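fyi for ur records
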Amino acid sequence: MKTREDLLKSPTYWLTKVQIEVFGLLNTYMEENNLTQKQVAEKLSVSPSYVSQILNGNFNFTISKLVELAVLVGKVPVLQFESVENLLKTELAQQADLKPAVKARRISGSGKIAV
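which gave:
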């Protein structure tokens, strides 16, 4: 079984994470603007099959195409690099902050968190 640290060190994990994000951006944009895959392909100057690959999560892209896609849907990519150790520390701190809220929800049974 892989640890969280092993997962965070996996290039496949990060590629999949970005692919899911790009899928969400494109899918939302298409729905909000009532566009077909063909129309989006024309706007991006790519083939409809490329758009289909994005929506199926079966694609690899260049950085320039990622930026172009983001700008098309009215977003900008924000890229930052962080050490695995710092990311794990941040996640642990966030989990510690959430523990009292989860406990409060279980006690009340209302599904609401009182903070």
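The chain has a mean pLDDT of 85. thats all i got for now
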